[in-house]
Amino acid sequence: MMKWKVALVGCGDIAGSIYIPQMSRFSNVELVAVCDIVPERAQEYA
Description:
The protein is of the alpha+beta class and 46 residues long. The protein has 2 helices and 2 strands; from the N terminus they run βαβα. It has helices at residues 13-23, 39-45; strands spanning 4-9, 29-35. The chain has a two-stranded parallel ribbon with strand order 1-2. Helix 1 links the parallel strand 1 (4-9) and strand 2. The chain is globular, with a radius of gyration of 11 Å. The termini are far apart.
């Protein structure tokens, strides 16, 4: 099965409550990068 590598742009409330939990449900999705205008938020998710 093909592995999807995903970069998350924006680490606000929706990323933490919806996007990341949903990505973890799929074995063929790998979160490989995060970025945010606030460096501390990106670091928290990294």
